[in-house]
Structure formats: C-alpha cells, structure tokens
Amino acid sequence: MIELNDDILNKYLDEELEQAELLKVLELLKESAEARNRLRVLQAVHSGLKEMKEYSPSEGFTSIIMGKLYSKVKSKKDQKIFIYSVSGVFIVLCLIIAGIALSIISNSVAASSSDELNQNIISYSEKIAGIIRSIFSGSGISIFGSVLSLGIIIFSYFFFEFQKNLKTKQSK
Amino acid sequence: MKNLSDLEIIKSVRNGNSTDYSIIVNRYKNKAFSLLKRMLKNNMEAEEVLQDCFLKAFRALDSFKGDSKFSTWFYRIVYNTALTRLSQKKRKIENEMNSLDNFSELHSRYDYNECERKDLSEFINSLVEQLPSKYSSVLNLFYLQGMSCEEISEVMDTSVANIKVLLHRSRNALKDVLVKKNYLEELS
Question: Which residue of A97, B13, B24, B81 shows the fewest CB atoms closer than 10 Å?
Fold first, then answer.
C-alpha cells in the first residue's frame, strides 16, 4: 500500500517512480484532494526553483584573476632566472678555479717525467693542504670568516631586494 | 574559441597559453559565485573565495585527469573552499548545516501575500538565500547548474541517497512556508 507522503510526491516530481507505483499514485491523487493540493504547491516550488537567480561577481572580475595569474607566472619565471644566474656565477667561478688548476698540472706534465709528475702532484697537494691549514688557523680563520660573512651579507641583500620587488609586483 | 570544450581549453592552458584560462573564468564565474553567495551569505566574501578557487584550480590543473567533468571537479574545489571558509569563521557548521528545524519560522523580505503570482520565483529565491548552506548548495547545483544527483554527490562527497534526501527536505521546507503563507488558497 502506497501512502501519498511528501517523499512519494517528490519522487513523482522527479519522475523516479516505477510504472506500477506511478499508476497507483495517480489513482490515489484522483481520490485525495488534499494530496492534489500538496502536489500543486510542490510543483509550484519546483517551477519557482527552476527560475533560480544567477548572480554575477563585480565587473572586471576576470581581469583581476588573470592579472593575479600573470604576476604569479611571471614571479615564478623571475625566481627561476635569479636562481639560475646566481648558480651560473658560482659554476663559472668553480670552472675558472678548476681551469687554472688544470693548466698548472698540464704545464708540469709537459715539463716532467711520470715520477716527477707524481712528486709534483704530491707537492701541490701538500701546498693546497698548507694553504687550507693556514686559512683555518690563527689570523687566517678571521680573514676567511670576514670574507665569507661579507659574501653572505652581499648575497642576502640582493636576495632580499629581489623578493621585496616580487612581492610589490604581486600586490599591484 | 569560446565554443571550445572545457577539456580543449584546459589542454591549451597546459600547453602554456595561460590567457585561455579567462574563457574558463568567464564560463563559470556567475554560477560558482551564485553557489558561494548562497553558502556564505555575503557578497564580498563570496567574491574573495571565488578568486581563491580560480587560482587554486589553475595551480591544480595538472592534477585534473579528466575522469569526471571539469565542472564537477571545479565545483568540488568551490564547495570545499567555502566549507573551509565557514569553518575558519567558526560558524558551527554542523548545527547550521544539519538542521531545518527553524526554517518554518523563516520570513522573506518579500511578503508573498503582497506579491503577485509572477513574483513566486522571487519569493522562493529569497527563501533559498536563508536556507542552511548544505540545502541551498544542493538546490543551487541541481536547479541552477543543472547537475544530476550523482554529480552533486561527487561535488559534496556524499551518497546519492543523501543528496536526494537533502533535495526533498529542501523542497518540503519551501512547500511548508508556502502553505503557511496560504498559497493553497490562492491556487484554488
């Protein structure tokens, strides 16, 4: 036995009733004026909802979004360029140092036999170790520390300025 | 260009034509704004959240695999961002969203008795604005976006049966208000 409650009427409205149920509901609707009235109000709600209002955001909304996206994409590119250029400078410095070292070694190879070469390599290693030792001992460490700190300060300043510019651009 | 499907536009954006994203923005801004306005009950907040949603969707475009429609995927972002905003504002979502008990006491700024029949949709619209977020979202997605219960269940991450229950309850609540306002008498 089907009871014509609101749930059944909603299903009727959404055409979710099976054929047998539908026939029974139609029969019951013929018999009950009260159920017919409820269905009519529900149908009115249904058609009222079909005309639901669509709201719009403020004018220029799309341009605001696209502006933000553009600045984000650009800032990402800028950041990449900055990182690449800093690491590029570092790599070039390393290459220069390696190049100088190689040229010294190749000069000594050209001028000496293999035994002399081994001795040369040992003597160069000792020299390098000596330089490193002198850097990290006595007054050397303070000079090295000062140079390193200065480098870090200069790098941080430029990095900070770069980030500040990016943020200013993004907020615009 | 505007006749392109969502998937075609997304493909173009992924290929580096980020300006094509404006077509997506123009296509969805009104419907998504309507959903947000009905959930957050505030124009400014809705617009702010909508901006976040479009930016979030842009950033997450690579994760969109096309298993579902773009609209379903995007409305899911919109719905979840709105829920997060509501929870941030400590609005006691559970109480607000799960109860329709006080709805029969709702009143519209449009008094239906003073309105003509043609204003019925305006009257219903003003009632929908006052429904708890969960109910107004279901009505909005079903009637305005024309989504099926299956798609809405995907957006709201709940069962289809639950969506149908929410839809029926919302309609019944609106029906009860109309009955209270003697709409029946006007019909007869």
Answer: A97
